[in-house]
């Protein structure tokens, strides 16, 4: 049971560690302009 809980907690700890890391000095990889996370932009065009 302990091993199961440890394996369950590992992804959570890695996610928290990744969020706490500062951004890279060079700005990192540029974002793909075709991909948007803006909630105001619909994922699919409206069908009329």
TrEMBL record:
Q: Which UniProt keywords apply?
A: Signal
Q: Where is this region: Disordered?
A: 21-48
What is the organism of origin for this protein? Answer: Pelagibacterium halotolerans (strain DSM 22347 / JCM 15775 / CGMCC 1.7692 / B2)
| Name of the protein this chain belongs to | Lipoprotein
Using the record, list the residue span of the signal peptide; answer none if the entry has no such feature: 1-18
């Amino acid at each position: 049971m302990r091993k199961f809980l440890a394996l369950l907690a590992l992804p959570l700890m890695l996610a928290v560690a990744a969020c706490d890391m500062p951004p890279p000095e060079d700005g990192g990889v540029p974002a793909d302009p075709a991909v948007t996370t803006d909630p105001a932009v619909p994922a699919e065009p409206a069908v009329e």
